[in-house]
Specification:
- The complex is a heterodimer.
- Chain A contains 4 helices and 5 strands; from the N terminus they run E-H-E-H-E-H-E-E-H.
- Chain A is α/β, with parallel strands linked by helices.
- The longest helix of chain A has 21 residues.
- Chain A is globular.
- In chain B, helix 2 runs antiparallel to helix 4 and helix 2 runs parallel beside helix 5.
- Chain B is built from 15 helices and 7 strands.
- Chain B is an alpha+beta fold.
- Chain B has 2 domains: about 220 residues, no CATH class; about 150 residues, Histidine kinase-like ATPase, C-terminal domain (Heat Shock Protein 90, 2-Layer Sandwich).
- The chains are: A alpha/beta, B alpha+beta.
- Chains A and B meet through helix 1 of A and helix 9, helix 10 and helix 13 of B.
């Protein structure tokens, strides 16, 4: 069972996503604001973060948090991030999976809202499986 | 008025009466105005420097002509001028190099000993060198006194009326001092005319020198009055135009930000409705009766359609905005077509429409996002308006005569000929299209039109009802040496 953290200010959407992911066998926690999400990640490291882009206090808060996670020096630095956004927009126009780079959008993958929940569940499984494979292939850390 | 004692410390904030938008977009800060003027002046500095190189060249050529062709001067009853033109050219050359160095500094760091200082020193140095020229050519018997007018007019263009008047005063003072010193025989020169009697006759007249001096000064002030007045008018208009342009740019940026936010605010609720409708449809909340299932399916489908429509409205609005467009890059159209085909793959599969591809490399310079939008819309239309089980053909290639070309062809419902001219209009949908596909927004081909117009892509549509549609897109060839 993987521990997934959904960070989205839309509680209705987050609850629906959480329901499907729980049925798929994951342990899911929802955080509705960014500061609570940061605290939550410090308390327990998630295996995957599902992150929204626009938050009430910061219209690019999701991007900022993604960058902060990647630039941090602790255990969350490498957590996969699946970005869920209602605005498929690299200002002024759309971004694509090709645009996922460290400077612009340091996330593992993204899905545009409204999402097909089956596609979302598949994407989550794929990211987690990839993560497990990468870890298995990685050489053991020197003690 | 009665107040209540309240021991609790509280933070306070009072709403400012001026609207935040007005403060941020309409008001001009003193810094912004100063930067705008500085930018204009820097342009003037650079132009003035270029002009001076021409003057330096003319002075040097004049000196060389005196050395190389004295006979020509003598034939014209003129005295060849050999020493001072080189001196004046050298002085101006050194000064211009200094001004240029300073100009480069102020381009990088405006407002610190800025363009105004540079122009002032340029004008003063010019006037000093010009006085030397006037003296050597003949301050009274030649029309050289009117050379000062060039600087009077330039000062009126560069500076305010008061400052340009100071330039007129400096020019008048220098010319008066030159004439006065010559009259007092403190400085002497034979002048450019060979015939000594000419100068003698003119200058021996008791009133002539002073009349010439006063006439010249009078002309300086009249020219200053007219030029400074006209310059103020032009400057005022220029400022108004720049200000209107600045406001338009800010309004455009504000509109784009607002559009982005509105898109989010509109799409987010649909995402929540769609997600919850899916929960119902997938049985996470128990098994639904068949009729209820149909209703929930319609709700989910409508949510998806609205989300697409909002996204297309945003794309269309962004295409209309000239500001902040991405930079064109060199693209291989075949790659972009492949991307667009992948994008519509799920729809093609759902409708059992086959996609035949014949893709050869074709290089263009274009905004990648825009070309992707254009191709996705054209290919998606071919798929959506095909009959179930049909197929579409997508060809891409480049020929020396036609340049890069993409052809998208379907065997679908087609478009009646009288409706073809309207298919690129915003929100236009033919009745046949609506009957075939209720989810059409009428914005796809409007997006295609905007991208085609902005990139110079020639789009030709050939169609017949019931037989299908062929869309040919001819792209401008990528010019050699254009940046990738």
């Amino acid at each position: 069972m993987s521990y997934l953290l959904i960070i989205d200010d839309d509680e209705d959407f987050a609850t629906a996503v959480a329901t499907v992911l729980r049925v798929a066998g994951h342990d899911v926690r929802i955080e509705l604001d960014l500061s609570a999400a940061v605290r939550s990640m410090t308390e327990r490291r998630p295996d995957l973060v599902l992150l929204d882009v626009m938050f009430p206090e910061d219209s690019t808060g999701g991007f900022e948090l993604a960058r902060k996670i990647r630039q941090s020096h602790d255990a969350v630095k490498d957590v996969p991030i699946l970005m869920l956004t209602a605005v498929n927009t690299r200002f002024p126009l759309g971004f694509s999976a090709k645009d996922i780079d460290e400077d612009w959008l340091p996330v593992t993958d993204f899905l545009e809202k409204p999402v097909d929940l089956d596609v979302l569940a598949e994407r989550v499984d794929a990211i987690l499986a990839n993560r497990r494979r990468t870890r298995a292939q990685a050489p053991p850390a020197a003690s | 008025m009665m107040t209540f004692a309240d021991p609790t410390p509280r933070s306070a904030y009072e709403l400012p009466l001026s609207a935040p938008d007005a403060r941020s977009s309409a008001a001009v800060t003193p810094d912004a105005a100063a930067l705008w003027r500085e930018a204009l002046l820097i342009g003037n500095v650079l132009w003035f420097l270029r002009l001076r190189w021409a003057v330096i060249a003319a002075l040097a050529a004049f000196g060389l002509a005196g050395l190389a062709f004295p006979g020509v001067f003598h034939a014209l009853r003129l005295r060849p001028q050999v020493g001072w033109p080189f001196l004046a050219a050298a002085l101006l050359l050194l000064a211009n190099l200094g001004f240029l160095g300073h100009a480069r500094l102020i381009v990088r760091n405006p407002l610190r000993w800025g363009a105004t200082w540079n122009l002032w020193i340029q004008i003063v140095v010019d006037l000093l060198v010009l006085t030397m020229v006037v003296h050597f050519l003949g301050s009274l018997e030649t029309p050289t006194a009117f050379l000062y007018l060039a600087h009077v007019v330039l000062a009126c263009i560069f500076f305010s009326r008061r400052r340009s008047l100071v330039v007129v005063a400096i020019a008048s003072g220098l010319y008066a001092v030159c004439v006065g010193m010559e009259r007092l025989q403190i400085i002497q020169t034979p002048g450019i005319y060979l015939d000594p009697l000419l100068r003698q006759a003119l200058t021996s007249h008791p009133a002539f020198p002073w009349l010439t001096l006063l006439s010249a000064l009078g002309v300086y002030f009249v020219v200053w009055f007219l030029a400074s007045h006209l310059s103020e008018l032009v400057r005022g208009q220029e400022w108004k135009l720049a200000e209107a342009n600045r406001r338009l740019t800010l309004a455009q940026q504000e509109k784009a930000r607002h559009m982005l936010r509105t898109t989010h605010e509109l799409k987010a609720p649909f995402a929540a409705i769609a997600a919850n409708a899916q929960l119902l449809l997938k049985g996470h909340c128990g098994v639904l009766p068949e009729q209820a299932r149909e209703v929930v399916s319609r709700i989910a489908a409508r949510c998806r359609r609205l989300a697409v429509e909002i996204q297309e409205m945003l794309q269309l609005a962004n295409l209309q905005s000239a500001e902040e467009q991405p930079t064109p890059t060199r693209l291989d159209l075949a790659e972009t077509v492949r991307w667009a085909i992948t994008r519509v793959g799920a729809t093609a599969q759902e409708r059992r429409v086959g996609v035949e591809q014949s893709l050869e490399p074709a290089s263009v310079v274009a905004i990648e996002d825009h070309v992707k939008m254009l191709l996705t819309n054209v290919i998606a239309n071919a798929v959506v308006y095909s009959t179930e089980g049909g197929s579409i053909r997508v060809q891409c290639g480049e020929t020396p005569s036609d340049g890069p070309v993409i052809v998208v062809e379907d065997e679908g419902i087609g478009i009646p000929s009288d409706k073809l001219p309207r298919i690129f209009d915003d929100y236009y949908r033919t009745e046949e299209a609506v009957r075939h596909n209720k989810d059409s927004t009428g914005l796809g081909l409007a997006i295609v039109r905007r991208v085609a117009v902005s990139h110079g892509i020639r789009v030709r549509v050939e169609s017949a009802p019931g037989c299908g549609t062929r869309v040919t897109m001819r792209f401008p060839a990528a010019g050699r040496g254009e940046s990738a």
